[in-house]
């Protein structure tokens, strides 16, 4: 005893609906996964940028004692006069010491 033509169409329609629903579910899951990965990458990049911003924003240590700075400048000048430091090295070291 076989199925009537109407029963076969009903089964075929149900099967087609199941395939369409399953495909939609898979596609939706993949889109959600892709969006979640993209969001995580953006969060990571923002965190790294913030950390780099903090590192760059940190002020360079400056001597607090004026006499100490004078002594260091005299030491640089004596090294320059002795020929240990070139003009460019002396200028760079002096600028670093003075913070300019």
Major sheet:
none
DSSP strand tally: 0
In round numbers, the mean pLDDT is: 80
- Structural Rg: 37 Å
Helical segment tally?
3
Structural class: mainly alpha
Instruction: Work out the strand percent.
Output: under 5%
Approximate shape: rod-shaped
What is the helix/strand order? Answer: HHH
Can you tell me the residue ranges where pLDDT is under 50 for at least 5 consecutive residues? none
In whole angstroms, the N-to-C terminal distance is: 98 Å
Characterize the structure shown.
With 100 residues, the protein is mostly helical. 81% of the residues lie in helices and 0% in strands. The chain is built from three helices and no strands. It has helices at 5-57, 66-81, 87-98. The chain is rod-shaped and about 110 Å long.
Brief summary of the model shown:
With 100 residues, the chain is mainly α. It has helices at 5-57, 66-81, 87-98.
Characteristic terms for this protein:
mainly alpha; 100 residues; rod-shaped; 3 helices
What is the secondary structure topology, with strand pairs?
Blueprint: H1 5-57, H2 66-81, H3 87-98
Helix pairs in contact: 2-3
């Amino acid at each position: 005893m076989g199925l009537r033509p109407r029963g076969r169409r009903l089964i075929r329609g149900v099967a087609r609906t199941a395939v369409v629903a399953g495909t939609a579910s898979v596609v939706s899951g993949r889109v959600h996964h892709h969006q979640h990965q993209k969001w995580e990458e953006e969060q990571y990049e923002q965190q790294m940028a913030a950390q780099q911003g903090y590192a760059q924003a940190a002020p360079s240590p400056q001597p607090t004692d004026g006499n100490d700075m004078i002594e260091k400048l005299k030491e640089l000048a004596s090294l320059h006069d002795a020929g240990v430091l070139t003009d460019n090295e002396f200028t760079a070291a002096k600028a670093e010491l003075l913070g300019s």
